[in-house]
Amino acid sequence: MRDKKHIGIALGLALLLPACGGKNSAGEKAARDTVPRLVAAAERYKADCGQYPGKAEDLSKDPGVAGWDGPYYSTIVDPWGVPYQIELIDEQLHVWSSGPDRVVRTEDDISN
Fold first, then answer.
1. Cα separation of 34 and 28, whole Å?
2. How far apart are CA 72 and CA 81, in angstroms?
3. Residue span of the signal peptide, if any (predicted)?
Protein backbone atom coordinates (compact mmCIF):
# COMPACT_ATOMS: atom_id res chain seq x y z
CA MET A 1 0.00 0.00 0.00
CA ARG A 2 2.85 2.34 0.82
CA ASP A 3 4.36 2.08 -2.71
CA LYS A 4 1.04 3.00 -4.32
CA LYS A 5 0.79 6.05 -2.07
CA HIS A 6 4.28 7.22 -3.09
CA ILE A 7 3.50 6.68 -6.77
CA GLY A 8 0.33 8.72 -6.40
CA ILE A 9 2.20 11.55 -4.70
CA ALA A 10 4.94 11.51 -7.34
CA LEU A 11 2.38 11.54 -10.13
CA GLY A 12 0.53 14.42 -8.50
CA LEU A 13 3.73 16.43 -8.17
CA ALA A 14 4.68 15.72 -11.79
CA LEU A 15 1.33 17.08 -12.91
CA LEU A 16 1.71 20.21 -10.78
CA LEU A 17 5.27 21.16 -11.79
CA PRO A 18 4.37 22.72 -15.16
CA ALA A 19 1.66 24.81 -13.52
CA CYS A 20 4.22 26.10 -11.03
CA GLY A 21 6.53 27.44 -13.71
CA GLY A 22 8.47 24.39 -14.84
CA LYS A 23 10.12 24.34 -18.25
CA ASN A 24 7.69 24.77 -21.15
CA SER A 25 4.80 25.63 -18.85
CA ALA A 26 1.57 27.08 -20.18
CA GLY A 27 2.71 30.48 -18.86
CA GLU A 28 5.94 30.31 -20.82
CA LYS A 29 4.05 29.36 -23.98
CA ALA A 30 1.62 32.24 -23.46
CA ALA A 31 4.48 34.71 -22.97
CA ARG A 32 6.32 33.38 -26.06
CA ASP A 33 3.11 33.87 -28.07
CA THR A 34 2.50 37.35 -26.68
CA VAL A 35 5.97 38.89 -27.14
CA PRO A 36 5.83 38.99 -30.98
CA ARG A 37 2.29 40.37 -30.81
CA LEU A 38 3.51 43.16 -28.54
CA VAL A 39 6.33 43.88 -30.99
CA ALA A 40 3.78 44.21 -33.81
CA ALA A 41 1.59 46.45 -31.61
CA ALA A 42 4.61 48.64 -30.78
CA GLU A 43 5.35 48.96 -34.52
CA ARG A 44 1.75 50.13 -35.12
CA TYR A 45 2.13 52.58 -32.23
CA LYS A 46 5.34 53.91 -33.81
CA ALA A 47 3.65 54.30 -37.19
CA ASP A 48 0.92 56.40 -35.57
CA CYS A 49 2.97 58.32 -32.99
CA GLY A 50 6.40 58.57 -34.61
CA GLN A 51 8.12 56.82 -31.69
CA TYR A 52 8.01 53.54 -29.81
CA PRO A 53 6.00 53.37 -26.59
CA GLY A 54 7.92 54.08 -23.41
CA LYS A 55 6.28 51.16 -21.61
CA ALA A 56 3.85 48.35 -22.37
CA GLU A 57 0.99 50.23 -20.71
CA ASP A 58 1.23 52.87 -23.47
CA LEU A 59 -0.12 50.23 -25.86
CA SER A 60 -3.38 49.90 -23.93
CA LYS A 61 -3.91 53.37 -22.40
CA ASP A 62 -3.44 56.71 -24.13
CA PRO A 63 -0.19 58.18 -22.78
CA GLY A 64 -1.06 61.60 -24.20
CA VAL A 65 1.20 61.25 -27.24
CA ALA A 66 0.07 62.93 -30.46
CA GLY A 67 -1.22 60.42 -33.00
CA TRP A 68 -2.15 57.71 -30.48
CA ASP A 69 -4.93 55.65 -32.03
CA GLY A 70 -5.10 52.66 -29.71
CA PRO A 71 -5.56 50.59 -27.84
CA TYR A 72 -2.94 48.64 -29.76
CA TYR A 73 -2.86 45.65 -27.41
CA SER A 74 -4.64 44.85 -24.18
CA THR A 75 -2.45 42.14 -22.60
CA ILE A 76 0.32 44.15 -21.01
CA VAL A 77 0.87 41.89 -17.99
CA ASP A 78 2.64 38.55 -18.40
CA PRO A 79 1.26 35.24 -17.09
CA TRP A 80 3.07 35.82 -13.78
CA GLY A 81 1.42 39.20 -13.14
CA VAL A 82 4.39 41.38 -14.13
CA PRO A 83 4.07 44.04 -16.86
CA TYR A 84 5.88 43.21 -20.09
CA GLN A 85 8.96 45.36 -20.61
CA ILE A 86 9.63 47.46 -23.71
CA GLU A 87 13.00 49.05 -24.36
CA LEU A 88 14.81 50.56 -27.34
CA ILE A 89 18.44 49.42 -27.39
CA ASP A 90 20.73 50.56 -30.23
CA GLU A 91 17.70 51.52 -32.31
CA GLN A 92 16.21 48.02 -31.92
CA LEU A 93 13.00 47.30 -30.06
CA HIS A 94 13.22 44.73 -27.27
CA VAL A 95 10.11 43.31 -25.63
CA TRP A 96 10.26 40.75 -22.85
CA SER A 97 8.56 39.03 -19.96
CA SER A 98 10.40 38.60 -16.67
CA GLY A 99 9.47 34.91 -16.78
CA PRO A 100 8.46 32.58 -13.97
CA ASP A 101 10.87 34.08 -11.43
CA ARG A 102 9.23 37.53 -11.91
CA VAL A 103 12.67 39.19 -11.94
CA VAL A 104 13.73 41.27 -14.95
CA ARG A 105 17.02 40.47 -16.70
CA THR A 106 17.51 36.94 -15.43
CA GLU A 107 18.05 33.68 -17.27
CA ASP A 108 14.36 32.76 -17.53
CA ASP A 109 13.24 36.00 -19.26
CA ILE A 110 11.26 35.50 -22.46
CA SER A 111 12.03 38.02 -25.20
CA ASN A 112 12.06 38.74 -28.91
1. 10
2. 20
3. none
Beta bridge partners of 89: 92
Per residue, the 3-state secondary structure of 29-97, as one string, reads: HHHHHHHHHHHHHHHHHHHHHCCCCCCHHHHCCCCCCCCCCCCCCCCCECCCCCECEEEEECCEEEEEE
| Side chain identity, residue 88 | L
pLDDT (tens place) for every residue of the chain, 112 residues total? 555 554 444 444 444 444 444 556 999 999 999 999 999 999 999 999 999 999 999 999 999 999 999 999 998 999 999 999 999 999 899 999 999 999 989 999 999 9
